[in-house]
Structure of Flagellar protein FliL:
Amino acid sequence: MATSSPAATAAASVATDPPASRRTSKLLIGLVAVLGLAVAGAAAYVFVLPRFTEHAAAETAKAPVPEKPIFLLLEPLTVNLQSEGRSRFLQIGMALKVRDEQAKAQIVEFMPELRSRLLVLLSNRPPESLVTSEDKARLATEIHSALNAPLAEGLPELGIASVSFNSFVVQ
Protein backbone atom coordinates (compact mmCIF):
# COMPACT_ATOMS: atom_id res chain seq x y z
CA MET A 1 0.00 0.00 0.00
CA ALA A 2 2.95 2.09 -0.21
CA THR A 3 2.13 2.76 -3.75
CA SER A 4 -0.91 4.70 -4.39
CA SER A 5 -2.92 4.61 -7.46
CA PRO A 6 -2.98 7.60 -9.80
CA ALA A 7 -6.69 8.02 -9.21
CA ALA A 8 -6.16 8.28 -5.47
CA THR A 9 -3.42 10.87 -5.95
CA ALA A 10 -5.66 12.95 -8.24
CA ALA A 11 -8.52 12.72 -5.76
CA ALA A 12 -6.25 13.85 -2.94
CA SER A 13 -4.94 16.85 -4.96
CA VAL A 14 -8.46 17.88 -5.95
CA ALA A 15 -9.49 17.66 -2.31
CA THR A 16 -6.63 19.97 -1.19
CA ASP A 17 -6.64 22.47 -4.14
CA PRO A 18 -10.18 23.88 -3.91
CA PRO A 19 -9.65 25.53 -0.54
CA ALA A 20 -6.38 27.09 -1.76
CA SER A 21 -7.95 28.32 -4.96
CA ARG A 22 -10.91 29.71 -2.96
CA ARG A 23 -8.49 31.63 -0.75
CA THR A 24 -6.65 33.12 -3.71
CA SER A 25 -9.87 34.06 -5.45
CA LYS A 26 -11.15 35.77 -2.26
CA LEU A 27 -7.80 37.51 -1.88
CA LEU A 28 -7.91 38.61 -5.52
CA ILE A 29 -11.49 39.91 -5.13
CA GLY A 30 -10.49 41.82 -1.96
CA LEU A 31 -7.47 43.37 -3.68
CA VAL A 32 -9.58 44.44 -6.67
CA ALA A 33 -12.17 45.98 -4.31
CA VAL A 34 -9.51 47.91 -2.36
CA LEU A 35 -7.88 49.06 -5.60
CA GLY A 36 -11.28 50.18 -6.93
CA LEU A 37 -11.98 52.16 -3.75
CA ALA A 38 -8.55 53.78 -3.97
CA VAL A 39 -9.16 54.79 -7.61
CA ALA A 40 -12.63 56.13 -6.74
CA GLY A 41 -11.20 58.15 -3.82
CA ALA A 42 -8.44 59.59 -6.01
CA ALA A 43 -10.98 60.53 -8.69
CA ALA A 44 -13.19 62.22 -6.10
CA TYR A 45 -10.20 64.12 -4.74
CA VAL A 46 -9.15 65.32 -8.20
CA PHE A 47 -12.57 66.16 -9.64
CA VAL A 48 -14.94 66.93 -6.76
CA LEU A 49 -12.80 68.54 -4.05
CA PRO A 50 -11.67 71.53 -6.16
CA ARG A 51 -15.31 72.48 -6.72
CA PHE A 52 -15.93 72.65 -2.99
CA THR A 53 -12.73 74.57 -2.25
CA GLU A 54 -13.40 77.05 -5.08
CA HIS A 55 -16.93 77.56 -3.73
CA ALA A 56 -15.62 78.10 -0.20
CA ALA A 57 -12.91 80.44 -1.47
CA ALA A 58 -15.48 82.39 -3.48
CA GLU A 59 -17.70 82.76 -0.39
CA THR A 60 -14.73 83.93 1.64
CA ALA A 61 -13.80 86.42 -1.06
CA LYS A 62 -17.38 87.66 -1.35
CA ALA A 63 -17.82 88.29 2.36
CA PRO A 64 -14.76 90.14 3.63
CA VAL A 65 -14.73 91.06 7.26
CA PRO A 66 -15.91 94.66 7.54
CA GLU A 67 -13.51 97.08 9.13
CA LYS A 68 -14.46 98.76 12.36
CA PRO A 69 -15.84 102.21 11.49
CA ILE A 70 -14.18 105.31 12.90
CA PHE A 71 -16.55 108.13 13.86
CA LEU A 72 -15.75 111.60 15.08
CA LEU A 73 -18.56 113.37 16.94
CA LEU A 74 -18.75 117.12 16.44
CA GLU A 75 -20.09 119.48 19.08
CA PRO A 76 -23.60 120.72 18.23
CA LEU A 77 -23.80 123.94 16.24
CA THR A 78 -26.51 126.60 16.45
CA VAL A 79 -26.82 129.01 13.53
CA ASN A 80 -29.24 131.74 12.47
CA LEU A 81 -31.51 130.90 9.57
CA GLN A 82 -32.67 133.39 6.98
CA SER A 83 -36.22 134.25 7.98
CA GLU A 84 -38.68 137.02 7.32
CA GLY A 85 -40.10 138.49 10.47
CA ARG A 86 -38.94 136.50 13.46
CA SER A 87 -35.58 134.90 14.23
CA ARG A 88 -35.22 131.21 13.35
CA PHE A 89 -32.38 128.91 14.35
CA LEU A 90 -30.92 125.59 13.32
CA GLN A 91 -29.36 123.41 15.97
CA ILE A 92 -27.48 120.53 14.41
CA GLY A 93 -25.34 117.76 15.80
CA MET A 94 -23.39 115.45 13.51
CA ALA A 95 -20.83 112.71 13.30
CA LEU A 96 -18.19 112.28 10.63
CA LYS A 97 -17.24 108.80 9.49
CA VAL A 98 -13.56 108.90 8.57
CA ARG A 99 -11.44 106.44 6.59
CA ASP A 100 -8.59 105.95 9.07
CA GLU A 101 -6.97 107.19 12.27
CA GLN A 102 -4.68 109.55 10.36
CA ALA A 103 -7.68 111.34 8.85
CA LYS A 104 -9.29 111.55 12.31
CA ALA A 105 -6.15 113.13 13.77
CA GLN A 106 -5.97 115.66 10.93
CA ILE A 107 -9.65 116.61 11.37
CA VAL A 108 -9.20 117.10 15.12
CA GLU A 109 -6.13 119.24 14.47
CA PHE A 110 -7.99 121.53 12.04
CA MET A 111 -11.35 121.52 13.85
CA PRO A 112 -11.63 125.35 14.19
CA GLU A 113 -11.35 125.80 10.43
CA LEU A 114 -13.84 122.99 9.79
CA ARG A 115 -16.36 124.48 12.25
CA SER A 116 -15.98 127.81 10.47
CA ARG A 117 -16.72 126.13 7.13
CA LEU A 118 -19.84 124.58 8.68
CA LEU A 119 -21.07 127.87 10.12
CA VAL A 120 -20.67 129.64 6.77
CA LEU A 121 -22.40 126.80 4.94
CA LEU A 122 -25.34 126.53 7.36
CA SER A 123 -26.04 130.15 8.22
CA ASN A 124 -28.57 132.28 6.37
CA ARG A 125 -30.40 129.34 4.80
CA PRO A 126 -34.16 129.59 4.49
CA PRO A 127 -35.88 127.28 7.01
CA GLU A 128 -38.06 125.84 4.22
CA SER A 129 -34.95 124.33 2.62
CA LEU A 130 -34.43 122.04 5.64
CA VAL A 131 -37.83 120.37 6.00
CA THR A 132 -37.93 117.12 4.00
CA SER A 133 -35.63 114.13 4.24
CA GLU A 134 -34.39 114.89 0.70
CA ASP A 135 -33.40 118.38 1.91
CA LYS A 136 -31.47 116.86 4.81
CA ALA A 137 -29.75 114.33 2.51
CA ARG A 138 -28.77 117.17 0.16
CA LEU A 139 -27.43 119.14 3.14
CA ALA A 140 -25.39 116.12 4.28
CA THR A 141 -23.87 115.90 0.79
CA GLU A 142 -23.04 119.64 0.83
CA ILE A 143 -21.46 119.33 4.29
CA HIS A 144 -19.43 116.32 3.13
CA SER A 145 -18.12 118.25 0.12
CA ALA A 146 -17.31 121.35 2.17
CA LEU A 147 -15.53 119.52 4.97
CA ASN A 148 -13.71 117.03 2.77
CA ALA A 149 -12.13 119.77 0.64
CA PRO A 150 -8.35 120.08 1.06
CA LEU A 151 -7.25 122.47 3.79
CA ALA A 152 -4.57 124.07 1.62
CA GLU A 153 -3.42 124.08 -1.99
CA GLY A 154 -1.74 120.78 -2.90
CA LEU A 155 -2.98 118.83 0.13
CA PRO A 156 -5.19 115.75 -0.29
CA GLU A 157 -8.81 115.53 0.83
CA LEU A 158 -9.40 114.98 4.54
CA GLY A 159 -10.69 111.42 4.25
CA ILE A 160 -14.28 111.92 5.39
CA ALA A 161 -16.37 108.99 4.17
CA SER A 162 -19.82 110.24 5.21
CA VAL A 163 -21.75 112.68 7.37
CA SER A 164 -24.62 111.65 9.64
CA PHE A 165 -26.88 113.80 11.79
CA ASN A 166 -27.33 113.12 15.50
CA SER A 167 -29.73 115.98 16.08
CA PHE A 168 -31.50 118.32 13.71
CA VAL A 169 -33.79 120.99 15.15
CA VAL A 170 -35.22 123.96 13.27
CA GLN A 171 -36.85 126.57 15.56
Q: What stands out?
A: The helical segments are 6-47, 49-62, 101-109, 111-122, 133-148. The chain has two domains: 6-62, 70-170.
